[in-house]
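User: My advisor, Dr. K., asked me to get a structural model of this assembly before our group meeting. I'm new to this, so sorry if the format is off. These are the inputs:
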Amino acid sequence: MQNSPLTAKVRKDFPILKREIHGHPLAYLDNAATTQKPKCVIDALVNFYEKHNSNISRGVYTLAEEATEIYEDGRETVAKFIGAADSGKIIFSRGTTESINLIAAAWIQPKLKAGDRIIVTEMEHHSNLVPWQLAAQTSGAELLYWPINLESEKSGIGSLDLQKFEEMLKDATKIKQGIRLLAVTAVSNVLGTVNPIAEIVKIAHSHGVPVLVDAAQAAARMPIDVARWDCDFLAFSGHKIYGPTGIGVLYVKNERLEEMQPFQGGGGMIRQVNRQTSTWADAPQKFEAGTPPVAEVYGLTAAVEYLSDIGMQEIQQHEIELTNHALKRFAEFNDLELYGPQDINSRSGVLSFNLRNVHPHDVAQVLDESGIGVRAGHHCTQVLHKRLGIVASVRMSFGLYNNTSEIDLLISELDRCRQLFIE
Amino acid sequence: MTKPSIYRDLLLEHARHPKNCGRLESPDLRATAFNPLCGDELELTLAVSEDIIQDCKTKVRGCSICQASASMMSDLILTKTLQEAEKISKVFTESLTKENEVISESLDSLRPLIALKKHRSRIKCMKLAWDALEDCARQNQT
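Assistant: The format is fine. Below is the predicted structure of the whole assembly, which you can bring to the meeting.
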């Protein structure tokens, strides 16, 4: 069977899938970078500009009230989507990167002291490393790396060892080192590893360490429940969950909101402005200076509703089936090195690999000639790639419209790479 | 090849059997270039006397296009002066950025590379060796 029931249902919702690339149907397998947009999201953007466009808040005319309602309804829809209705607030940003930078600037930087540590993992995307480096550098704090497993025992290659994390926290207590935060991804954008966030947060909290979760990959791939995970912060992007670019989400637990300084100054984030000083609006507006991306929030809301209608459980199940198929196909070839867990229970549909003796750029270019879109490079994880001892890799990552025949096409086109580059 | 491919035979030949590979033990000039987009690295070592490039080696950790470009460059710049080599590099860069530019005769052997200029993402791969060459030329001036 080429299409699962889900794929058969959703493919027609995505206009771009009608495109041909070099005379072939588009096989879009770069969903970890960005996802394609269903018609309802594209329509929402057009709709907003054709029917509701105006600035939010203060306007008392009809359009302004509609725009305000669209924006605040979007906040509620997103909160429900990640189980955040009671435990905290949703702040809109430009994307995962800005969400994390916001926490780095508004929450951690003011309280960091020399000698403090921020724990990150070796599998983090640059957007969950560099903001912490910048914050640490201003105060003489440092990053501590929670290493990934490279041995196949324990929970598998490319996973995080919880015991190791406990040890790091205990060692820090012994020398009275302040661990200010754990910043960890829910799903690796290279290895595909699904990290046990609820367990990780439990351990961190038992040592008084708050946790920021990068959910950029997870948000489109599995149900998210921040109340159950109990994380302090969670960030993701609209464009990776079938929504527009330029819109991101930051969830902050209520207790942490109190500890946060403003991020950017400007309109909308103030209560009163005097000549020399100002007072701040309540959260979340306190962290949303300037005219917000209203159309993008409308588009994001449409995407979230689209995903909720299908059901994140069903989307996750579809991805497990694709991943299972890919793992089986990869196992047929001994010149394919797949990075990350082999066990379906601890990984998602993000698969990075190398074809022996062929550079990932060359693989991606040859695949493009058959209409297959995959990514080649370090995928913004230079620390991880160095740890794996490689410069770059090819990455295939699934979305809800992908099917097993696209995986089979990729596998068969790898033969062309072998013919071209290996004598 | 059964399908049209951007990999011309000549390019593949250079990528598979690159010329002037490795590094000179005591070079007069040395430069490295790095592609932050993919992590590829290249080291260029030159032996220069009286401004003439007597020997040239490149050590490449990169894709076929990066490797082929380095190989073609080494072929082209050997026995030329650093100034001439730098000039070729500048003309080559221009030919990659300008539309429908008539290709200068001095770049004849680089045609397979220039043919790939519409693949914007691969221009940095082609340019890596030449970036290192221009770095060497700059070092020589100071």
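One thing worth pointing out at the meeting: The interface with chain A takes residues 1-7, 12, 15-16, 37-41, 61-66, 119, 122, 125 of chain B (CB under 8 Å).

User: Perfect, thanks a lot.
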